[in-house]
Amino acid sequence: MFPLRILITEDDHVSALLLKKALEKNNHEIIGISDSGEKALEILAEHKADIVMMDINLAGELDGIKTTEIINEKYDIPVVYLSASSDAETLTKVVGTNPSAYVIKPFNIRELNMVIELAIFKDRKEKELQKLNNELEEKVRQRTADLHEANKELTRALEKEREIGELKSRIVLNVSHGFKTPLTSILSSAQLLQMYADKEHPFKPKIIKHASKIENSVRSLNSLLTSVLFFGKADANKIDYNPKKMFTAAFINEVVDVVKAGAENDVKINLNIGKIPKTILSDVDLLYQVFENLLSNAVKYSKDGQEVDFSIWEEDGLIKSKIVDRGIGIPKKEQSQLFDRFFRAKNVGIIEGSGLGLSIVKKCIDVLKGQIEYDSDAGKGTTFHVTIPIKK
């Protein structure tokens, strides 16, 4: 073991000299011998020690235990207790000061060296552990500060995003509303042109043709704006559930008639109304969006001469419906995106569409607290199952 600077605190002069001789035999340096706690503290104030050999019973006001408490607080030096007593009361007092070791008198040199070596090893490891703990606490403090700052940045970013989202929603709503008036005027003008074309006019066929184009284009644009307005309200959290009493069969027939009137191909809709209440309580507008979009898509993506089956019934307080088409279907690889905004499958070809219909359907069903499931194969068609809770 390497040489140590040792302070001996022992009130028995003979024991102190014997201890000094034994320690010096192992090349240790004795920086002083004190017979009281007060004198030990004076020596430590002037000389640096690596370890203190401390007798428990000392002359003066400070015994070995009180002196050790002061040394622990001021100098953080390992202390080895020397005592002829090993009773329970003494040991309890000793443990409270966290000593590095405890030696019972009389002791032999080999035992003493082993105790000193263990005391130094214990002290070194405790200080290394304390250093690691301090470093860990500093890292935790720094990480906590970094996390706090990151949270502040994230909060600011989220607030900014919310402000931008609100601004975007206001712009979308204002612009969409602004388009509604001129589109209505254009539509009225197109209808007037068609009415005038009923009279004899050399350009009658061209007037009818172009007026029809204008009308169809305006209707398509109006539909797109309606969809954009819907999502403008959705993003602003303004889509609410407003239940009203409605005549069920009349509502369903109206949806089918609207889809048939807007169809641009020759597709038959087979309507099957099962057992269903005469009236129900639900949100008419949201239900209309669901069934009109699903039926319109089924017709639009079917070929001339094909059929679409629309079945609807009530079961256990739920409106259940099934819409089946034999159209182009949806590729399996793309089905995970089915309800995403502006998603259009790669196999739609030249069929026009905004890619908003199914995302509107999903949003409406969520507000209605319903469910929608589907099964589709490219080239074979698509089946949608819709379940919506209602009140009678």
Structural notes for this entry:
The chain has 392 residues and is of the alpha/beta class. Helices cover 53% and strands 18% of the residues. The chain has nine helices and twelve strands. The strands form three sheets. Strands 2-1-3-4-5 form a five-stranded parallel β-sheet, sandwiched between helices. Strands 7-9-10-12-11 form a five-stranded mixed β-sheet, covered by helices on one side. α2 (37-46) runs parallel beside α3 and α8 (284-300) runs antiparallel to α9. The longest helix is centred in the middle third of the chain and has 89 residues, at 109-197. The radius of gyration is 45 Å and the shape is rod-shaped. The protein starts with a strand and ends with a strand. The mean pLDDT is 81. The modification 4-aspartylphosphate is found at residue 55. Residues 5-120 form the Response regulatory domain.
